[in-house]
UniProtKB/TrEMBL annotation:
Coiled-coil portions: none
Source taxon at top rank: Bacteria
Full protein name: Nucleoid-associated protein FEE95_11000
Main location group: cytoplasm
Database matches in InterPro entries: YbaB-like_sf (IPR036894), YbaB/EbfC (IPR004401)
Keyword DNA-binding: yes
Amino acid sequence: MFGDMMGMMGKLKETQQKVEATKKRLNTVSLEETSPEGLVKVVITANRAVKEIQIDEILLNDKEQLEDYLILTINKAIEKATQVNETELSAVAKEGMPNIPGMDNLFK
């Protein structure tokens, strides 16, 4: 019984280390989102840190339009980054989980 418990604890610790390594790696994964007309471009990491914003000069004269483009493009970039982040982390977590009946759907 203790062998099984110790094995499970070791497996959980190993999984935790893999999750942390994956989080670090996701800091290096860059995703790009561009507004429909290409007037705003946002570069974001898979951990949702904005790294770069490029704005076409045409938008610099219209504050309201610039704000709308920024909100739209940043939100789309965050959505894309969140999807990559969740997919990567859930794959690592699922891979390391012990086979416990009834918990197989937890990380889908």
